[in-house]
Each structure stands twice: as structure tokens, then as C-alpha cells.
Amino acid sequence: MIRTRLFVPALFILGASGIGLASVVRVLLQLHGAPVAVSSGKLSEHDLEEINAMSVQDQVERLLEKAINHYGGAAEEIEKRADGWTGRFKATPKLETMTSTAYFANDLRVRAIALEIWLAQYGLHKTPEAVEGLIQGLASTNRKYFVLSNLGILGNRGVEPEKVFNTIMLYVNDPDPAARSGAINALGLLGTENTIAPLLQILRSDSSYDLRERAACNLADSGLLSRELRKKAVPELQRMNEDPNLDQRMKNWVGQALREINQ
User: Fold this and answer.
1) What does DSSP assign to residue 140?
2) Which of 14, 28, 42, 64 could form a disulfide linkage to 72, CB 3.0–4.6 angstroms apart?
3) Could you report the per-residue pLDDT of 140-152, keeping only the tens digit for each?
């Protein structure tokens, strides 16, 4: 109500001054068209001075917020600081919301920033030793989803990607659905070309429809596959879509994946 009371008199005044309503509407910022810059869109010296004076927790949140909003230099600052942040901040509801927003962003670089934050949050350095430690713990842990996912993240960030892929593949056909779910998530997080074939295999033949759907999502939109790599799944998805024996639920998922990749 307050906004209405302020806005209506403004229009009345403009009208009284001989400015028609149509002219006012043209002045208003349109919600379509090319982006309209507010500022330079880069971290300033003042920004960095302010961030440097913050606690690690606040640094993470401020720089992640800037990165989500595409401020130049924010991603580089996160990459530069991430190793020093490792194990020094907590997963708060605010941070979880922000990392989730980053992970589901349309810009793959912003999604990768979420991975950097997660590794630092979980106390994982980007080293071959970290990969080996996770692999060694897989056999005895009941947290395979968590461990496999972190392996996928490390592989995506350039740490032993082939070793990571080969380890994930050991769990693609695991009898435990939770382990297979972790393998699917890890393949999506790894995001390399060799992850496409196993995701298609899971979509075609896994015994769990829930896991088939997750594979379809990772092929279509979720995870770290680039748009160019997702397109490599299109021929097989089209063949599946034309299969007369495919049930309706599968047809829906395959069709949705094709539309999302091709739009």
C-alpha cells in the first residue's frame, strides 16, 4: 500500500506537467531485451579491502554472492582462496542456499564455483592424496554417495580424472541402489565425455526407475557436462525415443531430455 501511495501521486504530477502516461511507461525499465548494466560488474579495490577484513565464513559468502551475480574477479578470488579456506567455515542454511543456487546456475563456470566451495567445506584439498584417501575409504564406508560425489568433484577440478572415472564405474552396477545413486551423481559431477555412455546405459537398463530418471537429468541439465558434450547423447536418446518397446514413463523422460538439450 505504501508503494501505491507514493507511485500514484508521481503519475498524477507527471500528467499535470503535460507528460502523458505512454511517455512514462516508455521511461520505465523494460524486463526484456539485452542486460542493462548497473556498474562495471567487477570487484573493486574497496570490495577486496572489505572482504579481506572479514572472517573466512563471511569471505566465502560474499565472494560466492558476487560470483553468482557474475562479478568479474570473484571466481578467480574464490579459486585463489579456496585452499586456505579448507575446513575453516561451516555449512550454514544461508551458505547451503547459495551453493545450491550456484550449482544449478545456467553458467557452467558458476556451477564449478559451487564445487570449489564444497571441497573447501568438506576439508578436501585438490591433491592426488585426497583422491586416494577417498578411494581407500570406499570399501568400508556406508556413505558411498557422499564419497563418490566428492570423487566426482575432485575429478572435475582436474585431480586424477581418469582414476576417478574408473573408480566410479566400479559402482555403476552395484547391487546397492544407494551406491548406484552415488555413482550417477559422481558421473554428473565429473562431467567428462566418457561419462555419457554409462549414464545412457543406466537410463536404458537400471532396475530402478528413480535412478533412470536421475541419469536422464544428468544427461539433460544437471551436473557439469557442457552443452556441447550433452549434444553427443542426442543420437542415442533419439534411438531410444523411437523404440516401440519403450514404456510411457521412459518416453517422457527421454523426450524431456531431448527437448532440454536441443532447446
Assistant:
1) T
2) 42
3) 999 999 999 999 9
